[in-house]
Specification:
Helices cover about 40% and strands about 15% of the residues. It has helices at about 15-20, 25-40, 85-100, 115-125, 140-150, 165-170, 185-200, 220-230, 255, 285-295, 295-300, 305-320, 325-340, 365-375, 405-420; strands at about 50, 60-65, 70-75, 130-135, 155-160, 175-180, 205-210, 235-240, 265-270, 280-285, 355, 375, 380, 390-395. The strands form three sheets. Strands 4-10-9-8-7-5-6 form a seven-stranded mixed sheet, sandwiched between helices. A four-stranded mixed sheet has the order 1-2-3-12. The radius of gyration is 22 Å and the shape is globular. The protein starts with 12 loop residues before the first helix and ends in a 6-residue tail after the last helix. About 45% of the residues are buried. The structure holds pyridoxal-5'-phosphate (PLP).
């Protein structure tokens, strides 16, 4: 299939998307294949880098271009406390594997409910100060199960516009009415609550994130919660990025605001601080009991294997026993902020994610490739995941980073910003 090959360096995914609508499967997939080939050939490809070591502050990758392995400083992993390769966690996993084996082969309501899952539910319920917890095979599944399982046709969901893709996908699976409010804009939220409460015949849910995955800022829960109470609305809090690192004991963003008993329902993931995979919902015993039978992504998806559950339990022990990791993480984040600000970047993280906005005139693919060549592993958040003028690098800090690592990060970023080749 003839593909109009992109001839100039400014060809982007947007150009591909614009030209691919209404084409047959064969044409679309051929063209996309060519597009990815173009990106690779032109040294802009930084997807699917092959990591051949454990995830630590430094990872070893296999570089297909160099046909050799090399070390890179990892600033892309949500392994905030360094639990991905923690000796205690690994010991706990080995022990569980010897006792419980590697898998369970079924969903939790049938044959997939283990003693480890029960123990983890109880630990998480205590952590989130709520009556009950249910565990999903991913945070994504938890979000789609929650939205599609809990809400009905007469209800309304008012949600922050920067909500995660899994929330948006959950909306696709429900017949509930929905409307967004501008990110963290309390006036807009109040206006939407006012409008919705005058016409809603069911329940009103308000969905937001504790720590926003895109910008690393916090939802002002201290202001949102009193507003919700006024309208009798139910709070759905996605605390994927706050669980384990926010608050004095790492219990999450609600602890940070001292509002732990005010959250109607919390979603968490095991894929960030706990550095495994899986997700959970925490709420009242009635709501969790209901969702066990109405969240299809829970009912029809196999349970986490014992080894993953044991890794999460081990991680929770470390979170409790090693508070210095949390302190070091926040210290590192502040140090990175001070270095980046020295170079003129405006960054204002409130947790462990630093969003570095990329100017419209910069080619984010080229820039990420340059950063990659300089030994820094960073994630680029690109269109269409965000609007074109909102593209950014997302720097994930960890407790493992040293000051020298952070110095290198900021020096290399500055060098790439000063390199005229990375500008369109
Ligand atoms: C805010 C938020 N919610 C949910 C998810 C989905 O979690 P998981 O990756 O564990 O499926 C993510 C993952 O990036 C996230 O950032």
């Amino acid at each position: 299939m003839a593909f109009v090959k992109p001839v100039d360096q400014s060809f982007t995914l947007r150009d591909f998307l614009k030209s691919s609508t209404k084409k047959s499967l064969k044409k679309r997939t051929d063209e996309f294949y060519d597009y990815v080939g173009f990106v690779k050939k032109n040294h802009r490809y930084t997807y699917q880098r092959k990591i051949i070591s454990a995830t630590e502050r430094v990872v070893e990758i296999w570089d297909d271009e160099d046909k050799a392995s090399r070390e890179m400083l990892m600033f892309a992993s949500n392994n905030y406390l360094g639990l991905a390769n923690h000796p205690y966690v690994k010991e706990r996993v080995i022990k569980a594997m010897k006792t419980n084996g590697t898998g369970i082969g079924g969903p939790p309501l049938l044959n997939g409910y283990s003693n480890l899952m029960c123990e983890l539910e109880e630990r998480l319920a205590a952590m989130k100060q709520c009556e009950s917890v249910m565990i999903f095979s991913s945070g994504y599944n938890a979000n789609i199960g929650l939205i599609s399982g809990l809400t009905q046709r007469n209800d309304w969901i008012i949600f922050d516009s920067l909500s995660h893709a899994s929330f948006y996908d959950g909306l696709q699976l429900t017949k509930t009415n929905s409307v967004h409010f501008e990110h963290n804009n309390l006036n807009d939220l109040e206006q939407k609550l006012e409008e919705v409460s005058s016409k809603c015949k069911g329940d009103i849910f308000v969905a937001t994130e504790g720590v926003f995955s895109m910008d690393g800022d916090l939802a002002p829960l201290d202001k949102i919660i009193p507003m919700l109470r006024k309208y009798n609305a139910i709070l759905l809090l996605d605390d994927a990025h706050g669980t384990g690192i926010m608050g004095e004991l790492g219990k999450g963003t609600a602890e940070h605001f001292n509002l732990e008993n005010e959250i109607d329902l919390t979603l968490g993931t095991f894929s960030k601080t706990l550095a495994v995979t899986g997700g959970f919902l925490a709420s009242s015993k009635e709501v969790i009991n209901y969702l066990r039978y109405f969240a299809r992504s829970y009912m029809f998806s196999a349970s986490l294997p014992p080894i993953s559950l044991a890794a999460v339990l081990g991680g929770l022990d470390v979170i409790e026993k090693e508070p210095w990791l949390r302190e070091k993480l926040h210290e590192n984040t502040q140090y990175a902020v001070s270095k980046l600000r020295q170079f003129g970047f405006y960054v204002e993280p409130e947790a462990a994610i630093i969003a570095l906005k990329v100017p419209d005139e910069m080619n984010i693919r080229k820039a990420n490739y340059e950063i990659h060549r300089r030994g820094i592993f960073l994630n680029a958040v690109e269109y269409p995941a965000v609007p074109l003028n909102e593209q950014r690098f997302r720097i994930s800090m960890t407790a493992l980073h040293t000051k020298e690592d952070i110095d290198k990060l900021s020096t290399e970023i500055e060098a790439v910003w000063n390199d005229e080749n990375t500008w369109i």
